[in-house]
Specification:
The chain has no helices and eleven strands. With about 120 residues, it is mainly β. The strands form two sheets. Strands 2, 4, 5, 6, 9, 10 and 11 form a seven-stranded mixed beta sheet that branches. A four-stranded antiparallel beta sheet has the order 1-3-8-7, with no helix packed on it. The N and C termini lie far apart (about 40 Å).
């Protein structure tokens, strides 16, 4: 059974940083695509970042490009999201996701078959 557990969320002032972690069990992060999504109150879940398991290439939403970095530690079977220069509009629940197959459809939430429970990030102005 696949389990993804996020941690590292919290309250931070605008301009600050947080690092989210996603610990995986029942699935190996080095052989599955891994991604981060977020959902603000009253809004749909949106793509944030993803990493291709086979090439290691990373992709980002335009809104976070240059501020967020996704990475993985194969030895710990964990994926991270380093978030710098945080803005109030980054406030949301952040969710880790995993999938096999094509990487190109990474923006489509329905293509990801395993999800964590989420961790809350609140950025104060």
């Amino acid at each position: 059974q696949v389990q993804l557990v996020e941690s590292g969320g919290g309250l931070v002032q605008a301009g600050g940083s947080l690092r989210l972690s996603c610990a995986a069990s029942g699935r190996t992060v080095s052989t599955h695509h891994m991604g981060w999504f977020r959902q603000a109150p009253g809004k749909g879940r949106e793509f944030v970042a993803a990493i291709d398991w086979s090439t290691g290439s990373t992709v980002y939403a335009d809104s976070v490009k240059g501020r967020f970095t996704i990475s993985r530690d194969d030895a710990k079977n964990t994926v991270y999201l380093q978030m710098n220069s945080l803005k109030p509009e980054d406030t949301a629940g952040y969710y880790c996701a995993s999938k096999a197959g094509y990487f190109a459809d990474y923006k489509e939430t329905r293509r990801w078959d395993a999800w964590g429970q989420g961790t809350q990030v609140i950025v104060s102005s």
